[in-house]
Amino acid sequence: MTVTLEPADDRASFTAAVAEMPITSPLQGWGYGEARKELGQEPVRYLVRRGGQVVGALQLLRKRLVPGVSTLYAPRGPALTDLDLLPDVAAAVKHVARRTDHYLTIEPPHPIFAGHSATQEDLAQEQARIPDRHGPFRRAKTEQPEHTILIDTTPDPDTIFAGLHKMARRNVRTADRMGVEAGRDDSFEDFWEIFTATNERSSLGAFPRPYYEALRREADQDGGEAYLVLSRHEGRALAGGFFIALGDTTCYLYGGSVRDDRPPLEGEKRKDAKRPTPSTGPRSRTRTSTATPPSTCGAFPGCWTRASTPSASTR
């Protein structure tokens, strides 16, 4: 049966369709596309139908390169019931694309298993697992990170904690003993201070602040969530992350950490919550936010599973 793309103009119904797909991502949510308007990108959205049934949802970002030349990009998309639909989706996109759209890039949210280790062991072997083609799509450079860590959050917290690396477990316990508190936080100012300091320290790029503010506002609607998690020591925010969620998936998108540069308290030396004292073992440098998984995905079993999410493009 022919696959068609039906323009989606209703925010709630489109978001619900994205959330219900077995192959999906919060980056296909309406709110993510709205936030990208701050970067000059134009979101266009469709319900994918086959034989009258909704079998997917597709959010495309049109990026203008120069006058008369643009591209289409599906961030961590499309959301589908089956990857075998991709060739038909490509054909359907040709019917709705503008003459100025020179190519389409997709990032199907269907990770390829790369190993249980949290570190990369054999890059060549991992890369060989990613197919060069899928139907009309050719493998292309990714816009989102190609490698990620997936965590099943359905087990109890103790089971998830046991799946962390022993160094991470030790640092979490150290931070807990020192009174570090981590949780959802409404202070965007504190997050922004941490985020910008991290980017400057590591010479990383970042979008303008209005984009992050728009993403926090727009993705936190219609059943989706956008929230901050901050780790604080004696009230000072030292580490934080920016998360968006939709359906059964939560993505950690942005974050960072800073050192506590406050002067010592009267009569005692201020401890660095990120550095254990000699009595607790060797010194180590780690973020105090390790109690919060960096990425969660309830659709994939196994803790700390590394995976590759390839990107593909077609003209």
Order of helices and strands: EHHEEEEHEEHEEEHHEHHEEEEEE
- Secondary structure class reads alpha+beta
Helix content estimate: 10-25%
Sum up the overall morphology in one term: globular
The total count of strands amounts to: 17
Which radius of gyration do the C-alpha atoms yield?
Answer: 21 Å
Mean residue pLDDT: 85
Which percent band covers the strand fraction?
25-35%
List keywords for this structure.
single chain; 315 residues; alpha+beta; five-stranded antiparallel sheet; 8 helices
Please provide a brief summary of the model.
With 315 residues, the chain is an alpha+beta fold. Helix 2 (30-36) packs antiparallel against helix 8 (209-218). Helices cover 24% and strands 32% of the residues.
Question: What are the SSEs and their pairings?
Answer:
Blueprint: E1 3-7, H1 11-20, H2 30-36, E2 42-50, E3 53-66, E4 69-74, E5 79-80, H3 86-96, E6 101-106, E7 112-115, H4 123-128, E8 133-134, E9 137-140, E10 147-150, H5 157-162, H6 166-177, E11 181-185, H7 188-202, H8 209-218, E12 225-233, E13 236-246, E14 249-257, E15 296-297, E16 305-308, E17 311-314
Parallel strand pairs: 4-6
Antiparallel strand pairs: 1-2, 2-3, 3-4, 3-5, 6-17, 7-16, 8-9, 9-17, 10-16, 11-12, 12-13, 13-14, 14-15
Helix pairs in contact: 2-8
Describe the model.
The chain is α+β, with helices and mostly antiparallel strands and 315 residues long. It contains eight helices and 17 strands. Strands 1, 2, 3, 4, 5, 6, 8, 9 and 17 form a nine-stranded mixed beta sheet that branches. Strands 11-12-13-14-15 form a five-stranded antiparallel beta sheet. It is globular, with a radius of gyration of 21 Å.
